[in-house]
Amino acid sequence: MILENMTLQYTNKENGEKLRILYIDHESMYLYYVIMGMTMCMPKKEHIDKLEEEIATGVLIKIPDPYLNNIDEKDLSENARYKRDQQWEIIKKYWESNKEAFLEKKGREKLFKEIADKENIARVSLKRIFNRFWERGMTKNALLPDYKNSGAKGKERNLKSKKVGRPKKVDYMGEVQEGINITEDIKKIINLSIDKFYRKKEKPTIKAAYNSMLKEFFSDKYVENGEIKYKVWSKARIPSYRQFYYWFKNYEDIQKNVTFRGSKKEYKLKYRPILGTTAMETDGPGTRFQIDATVADIYIVSSLNRNRIIGRPIIYMVIDVYSRLVTGIYTGLEGPSWMGAMMALDNMIADKVEFCKEYDIHITKEQWPCEHLPETIIADRGEFEGYSVENLINNLNVKIENTPPYRGDLKGIVERSFRTVNEKLKHKTPGAIQKEFRERGDRDYRLDATLTLEEFTQILIKMVLHHNHKIITNYNMDKEMISDELNPTPINLWNWGIKNKKGRLRVIDRDIMKLNLLPKGKASISRAGLKFKKLFYSSKKAIEEQWFVKAKQRWVDVVYDPRNMNAIYILNEDGKGYEVCHLLKKSLQYKDCRLEEIIFQEELKEELIEWEKDKQNQLNIDLDKEIEDLVKKAEKEKKNTIVETISKSKKLKGIRENRALEKEINRKKEAFEIGREEKEGIIKAFNKEAVKEDEEEQDTRRLTLMEKIKRKRDEKLGKK
Questions:
Q1: Does the keyword Coiled coil apply (predicted)?
Q2: Tens digit of pLDDT for each residue in 328-346?
């Protein structure tokens, strides 16, 4: 219920606007209020229902009166009393007799002007008197000139009962600060402060939230040197930190705290109630497989040179949720990525006897019997999104359930297996990570790396075989299992589930599985062949059906293995067969190459061409300049030798004869002279005086020859 002189505060506004109710008109259902803390604020009108609704929804909350305090007249100065009493006479004279005129905006300024003229006071000063009166509690002491020092904040507190709780200790000055009782209104403020100041992404401390509450709800805001400051009320008027902490714990909501300070994902991962088990979601082997990857906590070495450390291997593991049996593994350097997941899924359907034989481990079918497709695979979103997953869903009828980000708990079985593997590696293998941070002087455990990838895989296979025959202590067994006296090992649960539960397991041809796991692309068809990733391919079917001649379609869907681009595959329409396309000779430079290497080489080639283009531009400009210079020189020579008496027709008629003459001259210049170098050597051996000819005679012979050639040319042109 809203009452006159009640103080309220908005919770949805940054400045935390505080209101004081001045007057309530129940007949018209309107009320009047002022905004506290402003330099000059006149009364505002609002509908009662609106404020009641805001109070009900928590937009507005009740707060302690910030100006309420006990004033001892003996503590007031004579000047303060004089100013207060003088202004109080004005309030008494005009406020009670004409209250509605002051509250309504219309006519208010005219009223202030009339009173100011009558009392011989400035209108601004008069408005300040009324503003202070309204804002600070509508009491006589509200007009005291210095509230910060005098503490004249309004009506005296009239506590009905003594402060409850632990008695306060006497402070240094010998005084006891009793504090306040935590009323329902104070509880609302504490609860709101927890929401507003504690539940934030910045993760403030409880103490910081308490301080923010004091600043917002239990302090006076004032301006000093143009800067807004806050003065916290005395201890007698504020809740203590102990009280705040008590009610903080009372209102504690773990879900809200973690969600607002962290995220929903964090809550679901670490704090959500665990009321069920993953096995409850299955009804037999093959219902659900979980797949995940981790980086092993061990460093391994190269198989080519054990002195070369190649880092930590990736482990992929596929586990049947119902039985906890490991149905597929992959150890390598791929991933975590789709390539690694693809290898694990391939191993999932592989014959484990043959797989172990590759690593010189000999087992029977009964020791590791799984080589099947499941009904559902639970996986990470990052690796199991895209074309290959669509193939598993659409072609092989395998459902894929992607867990949300950061929800490893939804694949708890495989996550637990990874922890077991890494714990075993840490204590049994050289090169394992012993602790997260090394101290100065500690030996670098990476230097102890000894195992190759193949040897590490052998160890993992041994651990998987051990796991498959190990008792699961916390498995929730069915009554039928107990009746059959079943020991809950993964292999026993697998075999019992196949016999007694619904059959969900399916067998598939491994090549078909591989084709559905490989990524997909589009190859273009042209006369040059099938072009894919800038490589060219052909196939028997394409040649027989004359794809490269007819070219009825421009594109064809293909699947490929990025680790080896020697061949790509075209799936048949029925999905049961495929056509192999082999590299053509024009692309054989990329034989046995990975796709990443091919892309790198092509990008490098394009960069080199672009880089060369810059040089080529300069060469083109230089060539153009040289050509222009030669043309200008030739034009100048022609201009100096031009004969204007020769007609255009005569010039054109002599082209054939001129060509023949020029050809004869060029033939003499171009004639091969065999043994020329040898002759030149002999000539150089002669005495210089003997071989030296008279320069004048040489010039004469040269001029005579040139005159003869010129004369013949002139005769041909018709000049005597």
A1: yes
A2: 988 887 666 777 788 888 8
